[in-house]
Amino acid sequence: MLKTLTVSDVPPPRCTPLERQGSVWLKPEGCQITGSVKYRMVYAKVTAALAAGLIHADSVLTEVTSGSTGVALAYVGARLGLRVELHAYQNACPRKCALIKAYGAHLTLHTVDTPLPHLLAHVSSQVTEHGYWHLNQYSRQAHFGAYMALGQEIVQQLAILTGVPPKMFACPVGTGGLIQGVGTYLRQAWPSLTIVAVEPAPHVAIPGMRNTQVLHMRQEDPYDTGFPDVRMTVLPPQNPTQVAGFTLGESTTAVYEMIRQEAWQDVLLIAPD
Fold first, then answer.
1. Which residue positions in the chain have pLDDT lower than 70?
2. What contacts 24+ positions apart, CB below 8 Å, involve 48-53?
3. What is the predicted pLDDT for the residue at 1?
4. Judging by DSSP bridges, how do beta strands 246-247 and 242-243 pair with one another?
5. Domains of the chain as residue ranges with CATH
6. pTM, whole model, 2 decimals?
7. Residues 158-196 as b or e (16 or more Cβ within 10 Å = b)
8. d(CA 152, CA 67)
9. Rounded to an integer, what distance in angstroms lies between the CA atom of residue 85 and that of residue 104?
């Protein structure tokens, strides 16, 4: 007899702290379940699909992911007792690949010259022909609802702590879902907020980030390059940065160092992992 799946099988995201460090309000999502803000998106999409009856006891969860999303989906699949099949590139973070496998997911690594649309087309064909459930993190509409709760959490925390909104929201760009999902909510709450997209300089590698002038799928891309008010590029940091007792990842360290160099004041920074 197949198990009945319920939303209660998956733990809700943690409310992470909001810490003040000089001119920066830092939201350390490394404290999140599975160590990444991506858990919020995976939780929102999976529980919505469960409630709608789109995921069943014989479903296979699938996605194309370079790391944190895969870790979160593998964890959720393990909690639900479902099979998870993931696709990533051979240059994906070894630590995150190991975590994905530790949660019992099947991970296929592809050569770096395989176009992302080809991988997405393969996953889509599995959904159509074999009944897989696709997380679909590359849908431009996927992130607004998924990250709304995070936006609400930030607004509520700032209201309690200071009552004064930040002047800027600076965010590293990976898939682009975080900056657009949270940024859309924050713009509604604080209309004068300046949203800054931070990307690596051309042909520079920073884990979890991409340069959208070099890597972008045009209309099929989940990230709208016209969304932010400002676009900045950065170089890889030499060493991790410690802020408010938290060790920042490479992408957040790069953004944090840029904020300090620019001497910006009252900036909100979400540390994705």
1. 1-3, 142
2. 48/145, 49/133, 50/5, 50/6, 50/7, 50/10, 51/7
3. 47
4. antiparallel
5. 13-33+142-271 (3.40.50.1100), 41-134 (3.40.50.1100)
6. 0.93
7. beeeeeebbebbbbbbbbbbbbbbbbbbbbeebeebbbb
8. 26
9. 10
